[in-house]
Design goal:
Layout (H helix, E strand, L loop, with lengths): L16 E2 L1 H7 L7 H13 L19 E2 L3 H13 L8 H19 L6 E8 L6 E6 L8 E8 H12 L1
Antiparallel strand pairs: 1-2, 3-4, 3-5
Helix pairs in contact: 1-2, 3-4, 3-5
Length: 165
Amino acid sequence: MEAKSLTVSSPFLGTPTLTVGQIAEQLSPVAPDQATTRERIRHWTREGLLLPIASHHSGTGKRRQYDASSVVYDAAILIAVAGAGLHVITQQYLLDVLSMARDARHKWDRAGSRGKLFLEISHKAGGGDPVIAIHEDAVKCDPDAGLSIVINLARIYKELRTSDG
């Protein structure tokens, strides 16, 4: 008989997970300062923007585990939003940004990952909630916006994939 480990990397069998350190390592093409990235990931977790797989991982000496299929991409988008000068705190529009970007990435992947893909966050001059849009092939800024931030999602996704292997 051969001894086999009963340890699994996820609280859900078959679901690959990553720790904060592993996420920061995978984000190095878009965020080379891993110490800052780890702190940002922890902050965004406290804010509810990045969610660990199960809450039973919290506590002293326990490492949070995140869903490997999406957390690196979500964190990369939050890094781009922060790099554009927006405060990354829990706001409904950021949850919407992450959801829309996830959907767009899946569609982009199915299409062969060759086209251009942009995320636009626009703020109207009079205030109110930001407007979020995903653009394929070309940037189309909202002409009525007082401020528009455009993030090249295709570039981020390609950089992360290239570093992954």
